Amino acid sequence: MTKPDNKRNWYLIFTKPRMERQAVEHLERQGYCTYLPLMAVTRRQRGRYRQTIEPCFPRYLFIHLDSRTDNWAPIRSTLGVAKIVEFGGLPAMVPDDLIATLQNNEDPEGLQQLHEPELKKGDKVTVLEGPFAGYQGIYQQHQSRERVAILMDIVGKNTLMTISVHELQRVCASAPDT
Questions:
Q1: How far apart are the C-alpha atoms of 129 and 133, rounded to whole Å?
Q2: Residue 92's pLDDT is what?
């Protein structure tokens, strides 16, 4: 990523599926300044959980352009680019402070720091995968680095189950109805 200057604004590019990195590479080769925020994601592959690096906003990236002097025509035909995002026929301008916030939230490896909230005993959780997907339970404790114990009501009986931490999501408390 080249250094942006003060006369430019950030705009949003919509890419072809899974071609964000190729679009960045080809745009930067043409001299454009781009920004693609990345994050580490844990995915299940062949029965194992693996960490992969993926775009924070799939199919989107940011480009820093001067609307008066930059040639926008080559952008649309760049490998990986689907289109420049527009609203009402005008390119979608992205606030500088949003880009600054994303860049300031990066760790030394250039990845967004996403802080998973720590589970506490008694937190309600939903199972996301496996035979109990969609069921809710109550978090009890960590059994190991990757496994946790949850209490689930199965056929009217509370049962303690051990499940992968990656298969759970904390249930957010909803606001009371007024």
A1: 5
A2: 92
